[in-house]
UniProtKB/TrEMBL annotation:
Name the record gives this protein: Cytidylate kinase
Known catalytic reactions: CMP + ATP = CDP + ADP; dCMP + ATP = dCDP + ADP
Record keywords: ATP-binding, Cytoplasm, Kinase, Nucleotide-binding, Transferase
Stored Gene3D superfamilies: P-loop containing nucleotide triphosphate hydrolases
Residues that hold ATP according to the record: G14, P15, A16, G17, S18, G19, K20, S21, T22
Gene field: cmk
InterPro entries in UniProt: Cytidylate_kin, Cytidylate_kinase_dom, P-loop_NTPase
Entry GO terms, CC: cytosol
Assigned protein family: Belongs to the cytidylate kinase family. Type 1 subfamily.
Phylogenetic classification of the source organism: Bacteria, Bacillati, Mycoplasmatota, Mycoplasmoidales, Mycoplasmoidaceae
Organism: Mycoplasmoides gallisepticum S6
Subcellular location field: Cytoplasm
EC number: 2.7.4.25
Domain (Cytidylate kinase): residue spans on this chain: 10-216
Length: 224
């Protein structure tokens, strides 16, 4: 049975630190599409769990009582923008932990697909190409060497780039890659119909331009 391709969905996956969120946001802006950072959904989940001292089951039972809006990387709950709060390292760590739970993963999937079915969307995150948007017209696996991702991360944190910091961050990224690839739920993987883009020698603009070009090719029309 031939699957029905959705021409208004672009899915971007890739290892940690590959720049997929930055690229996805810019692609969405260029095309006039909605952008959804799926990682923010799990962070919002954990934020509510932490604030209310809930279990995962309690979160799922009560989440629809909140007025939540996910707009790109901005998250508003009951008219309060909590986006900056979600950048806290403890929230990030907690979100990563609860994302391993099958129940919360399934609940997040329903929310993600609901957003994707409402409007043209560019979405990034784990299992976006394989599970969340399996019929997207364009699936991209954005990658870069562990060393290059380490350099970018060091610069992002305004740390000194030297042999010691480069070795430390490279090792951490390689360990993260290994964990993500071998975990049982939503492992890091390249689906067979994804286009792999190695950004080692590319600027962010070049990556965005390449994805836009690929989208035009898939669409078969000129897209200003």
């Amino acid at each position: 049975m031939t699957k029905q391709i959705n021409s208004q969905q672009i899915a971007i996956d890739g290892p940690a630190g590959s720049g997929k969120s930055t690229v996805a946001k810019l692609v969405a802006q260029r095309l006039g599409f909605y952008y959804l950072s799926t990682g923010k959904i799990f962070r919002a989940f954990y934020y509510l769990i932490k604030e209310n001292n809930w279990s995962i089951d309690q979160l799922i039972s009560n989440f629809n009582k909140y007025e939540c809006a996910f707009n790109g990387d901005q998250v508003v709950i009951n008219k309060e923008n909590i986006s900056q709060l979600l950048n806290d390292p403890t929230i990030s760590k907690g979100a990563s932990e609860i994302a391993q739970d099958p129940k919360i993963r399934a609940y997040a999937l329903s929310l993600q697909q609901d957003y994707a079915n409402k409007k043209p969307v560019v979405m990034d995150g784990r299992d976006i190409t394989s599970v969340v948007l399996p019929n997207a017209i364009l699936k991209v696996f954005l990658t870069a060497s562990a060393q290059q991702r380490a350099i970018r991360r060091i610069k992002q944190l305004n740390l000194e780039l030297n042999k010691a910091t480069l070795e430390q961050f490279t090792n951490e990224i390689q360990q993260r890659d290994d964990n993500d690839t071998n975990r049982k739920l939503a492992p890091l993987m390249i689906v067979k119909d994804a286009i792999v883009i190695d950004s080692d020698q590319l600027s962010i603009k070049q990556v965005v331009d390449k994805i836009i070009s690929l989208y035009k090719q898939r669409l078969g029309v000129n897209y200003a």
